[in-house]
Every structure is written in structure tokens, then in C-alpha cells.
Amino acid sequence: MSALSLAARDSSTMLRRNxxxxxxxxxxxxxxxxxxxxxxxxxxxxxxxxxxAGMGGADRAAYIAYLVPGILMMTVGGxxxxxxxxVSNDMSEGIIARFRTMAIHRPSILxxxxxxxxxxxxxxxxxxxxxxxxxxFRSTDATALxxxxxxxxxxxxxxxxxxxxxxMGLVSPNAEAASNNALPLVVLPLIxxxxxxxxxxPGWFQPIAEYQPFTPAIETLxxxxxxxxxxxxxxxxxxxxxxxTVLGYFWSKATFDRDxx
Length: 261
Known about the structure:
By secondary structure, this protein is mainly α. The protein is built from twelve helices and no strands. The model has no long low-confidence stretch (mean pLDDT about 85).
């Protein structure tokens, strides 16, 4: 077999291993998935009228349309926390040390985690999206091409954040530390344009919300799903994703290739 065939075989084996773990131990994924669903229901049914009134008198249906793209991005950020915990568990429980002694393609260990996490992110987004549709979200103005672009953007964001989460898991001494290290991936969507427009925020807070990866990603996804203009947010979101992917990949690879102490 060629080196490429061996790498593909080993990567698929590691992918099946990670998906099997996710199926056998679904509690972490379900707990992380519960947060965006609760936030969606909370901001629609508890704060919906107040929030929509503060956005120029829009009704609840308009606020649902505004809110859902941010919740979907929050779903991605929350799901990859499980990846950091899973990688940290593998490092601390000794299975990685065993893999290092075997004749396998070493990067396939990380590839299995990354691909498995991206698939879980997309499944989580679909589930949260189904809840959003059930409570009234509609995307009637988006074309098929915009839907396809929205799916691609979500996958790209999931890939970028997963590589960052893998690096966080590799440098964490235990699962608790990995969960804490990955907390910014959950917090950043909360201080973005997910819930209210940046213009409605205090002046001193607006740069914090604007100059971070989640805001252009949310604005781009919102424009694609609702069939509205995305402006410069499209290329900003792609640039953030590519930069984070490269950073996370080289960080993870350098940490993983380091000889264990």
C-alpha cells in the first residue's frame, strides 16, 4: 500500500474510534448541545418581546430570524469543547502512548479527532436548527446557493475551531483543565452580535464584539440564511477560519510531535 493509502486507512480507523466513543458516551455531547437549545428557548420565549422591542420595534418572528444564526455558531463553539476534553482524556489515559509504539500514521490520531468533531458539530447544528424551525424560524428569501454557502461556512468554522480545541486538549493536563481552556469558545459568541446588533451595544464594548471571529461569521451566516447582504463580513469570516485552522493545525502538530516527558 502507498503512504497515502495507509494514511487514509489509519485516519478512517481513528475516525470510527472517535465516533464509537461519541455513541457509547453521549452525555458530554448532549450536555453541550443542551446549552444552545436552552439559550434559544430562553431568548425567544422569556426575553423575546423585550429584545425585539429594543431592536426598533421588531416582532418576535423577526427576532427569531436574527437570533438563530448566532445560536448556530454558539452550537459549534460549544460542541468543540467536547473535542478538547476527549483529546485530553486520550493524552492522560495512556492510549496515545500506546499508539506511538504502533506502526500507524501518527497524524491520523489527530485527523480522527478533527473529522469526528466536525461531523458532530454539523449534526448538532442540524438538531438545533430543527428546534429553531419548530419554534418559528423561516428562511424563505435564501436561495439554494446561499444555503449551500451557509453549510460550507459552518463546516469551515467547525474545522477551524476544532483544530484550536485539539491544541487546547493536547496542552491540558486533564479533562477539567481542557474544559476550562476551551471556555473562550463558548464565551466569545455571548459577546458577539449573536443577540443584539453591535450598534445597540455601549460604545466601549463595541470593539470587543466586533473584532473577534464569531461576529463576522454570525453576520455572514445571518445574511446567507435570510437572503440579505453580507458586505465585508464574508471575506472576514473566511480569513478568520483559515487563520485559525492554520494556527490550530501547526500548534496541535508541534505539541503532539513533542516527545512525552
